């Protein structure tokens, strides 16, 4: 036994084993199972083991599926851009314009208050607000800005993105705020002494130093948006599909192999996207 | 999400104050309620939201001492549950088309009709398939075609009354389009109006493939685009054609939304987002009880019909199985039938339900007669004053004009895929 401990690397292996066991059982095995099932066949009410490419053939052969993937990327991209600008601005304000730590923390906690309610509630409360006879339309008509209710407010791309931004902006604020707080203020003073303008400080000092935070926030938002299905279902009135909805529809109709195949393709897509994002910033080096 | 669980228990509301003159008639028939109360029998009933009412669970506890845990899911979720999680329910409260899908999994056991007290009073639609001896059987998965099997473990359907029922029929109805007459302002008489550009951005269809495809078929026939040899069993070309027409309409912005669960359809209609859509009868009742005008519009081409029934889980045995039989006998004995008739459904055992409804209610809901007094929803809200007539008239008028049943087709898997594409398009 003692000799086992003394073998080179043994201690590291043992230290790493709890997390490894968890990852093997709860991450690798399920993914392996999903991948295996994605090659299975299905009837209306059962699935049977097989090794066939039917599910993938359908996925890559259907124009609808391509459009759905495109839509998923579009949602991710737009949501990312908006949450990033809002998240960055909020974090910037908290870090550089609020001067006492107490206020910083108070205001930051204020940002999290909406998150005390459930995700679904926050999303669904938009529905009566944005509806044809909802508060938004009624106020706009009341102010004389429009004559007819705006139809595109609800059950539209706009509504979906609005809900995404509302739900996920905090995931951008937190990591950016966190990295920004750790920027040494003397760097900014030095830049100013060196004659840099406010904008130059932003682009040459603050943004480069905030990159890891931005990247972590981006990974959160992109992964969440690409994996979502319920927001898209409710805010589009079931009219718009993203990949998550394809999977959920398949599961609802007992087409597990087809759902598994879609999930595998989605997983690969998200991993590739994140790998590309990580090419821009080496998070480990920067943290 | 759309899933919620209703449990019998803590806050027992007073039931149906004025509405049920029934209470007086109750109390006579039921045997040995104490037995179950002592043994703490709990039955888990998973079903579509259409008949998962707290009131039923409360009454069952009162009369039988059986605790019902009701889970209301959308049709696809309940199908999934019955097919894949055999241990998660005791009673499946499903529709006949769902039965066609899940019966082959063996997760349900057949019921011995000799143990069903009111078996001979069950409406003809569920036994011979004929409403009246002379009526035609409509297209699609008609309940009697999947209503019987060979024995307790039977996996095949048989076409005659074999003594072993797959589902015990509970409620059924003839569905049509729901409209907001106040926002439309003109008569609606055809299914084709669903795709009328006049209602662009104000129409909706339900996102449950086996039901939605039949609504689509009714619309396509009504538009004169195509006459199906058998709507209930389309060929691939027919599926492509049908869904193609609707995909085109969707791209042109015809639909405001699609709905999957009952309450979504109520909200769409009540908020005025939608003025014409596929709808279920209690949803109409729910919209009306908010004081908003809503009509279950009878249409020239006839109705799309469905039947619901309860299946027993294959895992049930012993005392629990007996309790389940007792519950089903109680279900058919009238109180529930009367309650559900007031939602606008038809009870599969109308004779017994009649005992639990006032003559006026029976006249209004079943016979299509003008109401004499107020017609009240089960929750107590006023639906109609005196002098009102039910949309579509009497039971025979409505069920006699059924053009098709909700269906599971031979090409179901192909249809499902195409349906998914329609939703994603």
Describe this structure in words.
- The complex is a heterodimer of chains A (287) and B (425).
- Chain A is mainly α.
- Chain A has one domain (38-286): MetI-like fold.
- Chain A is 75% helix and 1% strand.
- Chain A contains 15 helices and two strands.
- Chain A has helices spanning 2-6, 10-37, 54-61, 63-97, 101-112, 119-124, 126-130, 135-142, 157-181, 185-193, 198-227, 230-235, 243-252, 256-280, 283-286; strands spanning 41-42, 47-48.
- In chain A, strands 1-2 form a two-stranded antiparallel ribbon.
- In chain A, a hairpin with a 4-residue loop joins β1 (41-42) and β2.
- The two termini of chain A are 38 Å apart.
- The mean pLDDT of chain A is 90.
- Chain B is of the alpha/beta class.
- Chain B folds into two domains: 4-174 and 305-357, D-Maltodextrin-Binding Protein, domain 2; 177-301 and 394-424, D-Maltodextrin-Binding Protein, domain 2 (3-Layer(aba) Sandwich).
- The radius of gyration of chain B is 21 Å and the shape is globular.
- The model of chain B is unreliable at 1-34 (pLDDT under 50).
- The A-B interface holds A 42-46, 58, 62, 64-65, 67-68, 120, 127-128, 131-134, 151, 154-155, 230, 236-239, 241, 245-246, 249-255 and B 1, 74, 76-77, 79-80, 83-84, 101-102, 104-105, 201, 204, 207, 209, 250, 255-260, 267-268, 271-273, 408, 412-413, 416-417, 420-421, 423-425.
Domain count of chain A: the total is 1
- N-to-C CA distance of chain B: 23 Å
Number of helices of chain B: 16
The CATH class label of chain A is Mainly Alpha
Give the amount of beta strand of chain A, in percent.
under 5%
List the uncertain runs of chain B.
1-34
* Count of the separate structural domains of chain B: 2
Number of helices of chain A: 15
Number of strands of chain B: 20
* Straight-line N-to-C gap of chain A: 38 Å
Which key terms come to mind for this protein?
heterodimer; A: 287 residues; mainly alpha; MetI-like fold; two-stranded antiparallel ribbon; 75% helix; B: 425 residues; alpha/beta; D-Maltodextrin-Binding Protein, domain 2; 2 domains; five-stranded mixed sheet; 16 helices; globular
